[in-house]
Amino acid sequence: MEEKYKVKVNGELEFEFTKDQISAPDVSKSSSSAFHILHNSRSFKAELQESDFLSKTYTVKINSKSYQVKISNELDLLIDEMGLSLAAAQVVNDIKAPMPGLILDVLVEEGQEVKEGDYLLVLEAMKMENTLTAPRDGVVKFVSVQKGETVDKSQLLIEMD
């Protein structure tokens, strides 16, 4: 089965391509963001003006006109078809215990600013230490546990703003 892609241009026009069709044009790089494309005996100048790799959106200038392009692969299309969305993830404000255990250390305090990935606390569960990290940048609003306290699964540990 051949890999397929769906491309939406300027939020209106939709195109489907196979991997072979994408690699068919003759493309040569003329600078870090500029390209010369030869396709069906026609010449095009292309420039990548903006790119957001995570959301797979790009602004591309072809000859003298700019286009907003969103690329979706088969997995993206399946996720969309199922009514799910990776981009529409909700902001996490509550840090809850993923499993029952013992709080070995609380590394933050109320009012403290944290960055995504910063260590918040250490939870021992099944003789393993698990360090819980901040899911996003924010401020610690409330710490509801202390060192040495036992917690149940899904118990609120830290609330963030």
From TrEMBL:
- SUPFAM superfamilies recorded for this chain? Single hybrid motif (SSF51230)
Q: Which is a Pfam family this sequence falls into? A: Biotin_lipoyl
Which residue ranges does the record assign to the Lipoyl-binding domain?
A: 79-161
Instruction: Report TM segments.
Output: none
Q: Which InterPro entries match?
A: Biotin_BS, Biotin_Carboxyl_Carrier/Decarb, Biotin_lipoyl, Single_hybrid_motif
- Recorded superkingdom: Bacteria
Please provide the record's keywords in A-Z order: Biotin
Q: What is this protein called?
A: Biotin carboxyl carrier protein
**From which source organism is this entry?**
Salinimicrobium sediminis
